[in-house]
Write a structure and sequence with these properties.
single chain
Length: 118
């Protein structure tokens, strides 16, 4: 239980640190956020977890790689929505919903072509 709490606190700390760095330097904040920090933390947490282990951590990393490109939908649609005159809230919501839709569609396409993704 203590490890779960420490993981949660660490994850929140990363988000807060990136937010604070971004306030001072947009480029540095974006560069840190562009690093797959959350994925790295999850992979490390899985690899060191007694119930998961390195094999599950590697499987997670591979699946994350396969879903990287569908995830870019968010970064395309968020600014596009605002350029089209939508408010930030609407642009954000559309980008999130579309990212989920594109990601699940990509999973379906990959499975159709025999890519094991579970």
């Amino acid at each position: 239980m203590l490890m779960t709490i420490l993981k949660a606190v660490g994850t929140v700390a990363v988000v807060v640190i990136i937010s604070e760095v971004q306030k001072r330097s947009n480029v540095l904040g974006a560069a840190i956020a562009a690093l797959p920090l959350m994925t790295m933390l999850v992979v490390l947490n899985l690899a060191t977890d007694e119930k998961a282990g390195p094999e599950q951590a590697t499987h997670f990393a591979n699946t994350t790689f396969l879903l990287f490109f569908p995830g870019l939908t968010f970064f395309i649609l968020l600014p596009l929505g605002q350029k089209m005159g939508l408010s930030f809230g609407w642009s954000f919501g559309v980008a999130v919903a579309a990212t989920f839709a594109v990601t699940f569609a990509a999973i379906g396409v990959m499975r159709h072509f025999g890519v094991k993704i579970d």
